[in-house]
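Same chain as my last thread, 309 residues:
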Amino acid sequence: MIRLTLSLTLIALITPAITHAQEPKPQPAAAANAPAAESRPADRQAIRDTMASFVKAFQARDAKALANHWTTEGEHATVRGLTVHGRPALETGFTEFFAATPELTAEIQPESLRFLSSAAAIEQGTVTIRKGAAEAATKARYEALLVQEENQWRIASLSESAEEGVLIADLDWLIGEWKSTVGGGAEIHTRYAWDANKKFIDVTFRLQEGDRTLTGRQVIGIDPATGKLHSWTFEANGGVGEADWSPDGHDWILSAAGSLPNGATLEETNILRRVNADTLTWQSTNRLLNGNEIADLAPVKVTRIPAAK
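reply #2:
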């Protein structure tokens, strides 16, 4: 959270829609060795059918059909921290998402399904997302609350979270010096460097705006209490902040919070996108100042400074 109001990334589109592959049907077995039958087989099959239809709508890039798999007031909470509520908003989000990601595919590995009541069930699993043959696949956890509405199983709530196992080495590409220019002509210089044991990345930054200079330091590493990639930011003017880092393809999603020098609180979702080896973009969205919504920051292009020979 450089300067807490100076975040560098890219507005979050609705995260890749979750698709779902059908679970394999149980094979016949000898009666003497047959396991106990699954409870509510008809409802389990109906849920499989619903999610198979979900997959079909996603592969067809049919935003309206996809949104109709949610309940009327259903919600989708993305790994980027964005929550979309209601079918109309979901349809709009998927329409925009499909237009922006023409090559995206997704596969699901369901891990568990349990019933909460006669008309509610929770499914959990993993989604694998691919944004084209040239990009690495990414994984996320998902949890879907399904309920019966109009005699059909529909999604009432779908939430996503980053897959565990992120390593500090995943940020090795940031090592070096970077520069950018933000609105008003302010120049930002940032340096990323490994510490002696490569357990943390030390970041120093300087913002120059006319005759005003702001400097600060950030440390990025794995928080042993949570196992998550985390950063701690300290600014020379007294501002402090921290953030959880979650991978999403070539993006990193930073769920950030901090305090300004005057005691005001700031929360935001920062999105860092790796464009290529020497270019990234950064933007802050979903911003709250003292709990009140404020405008997103415009995306900023950041370029690598070539190493001295």
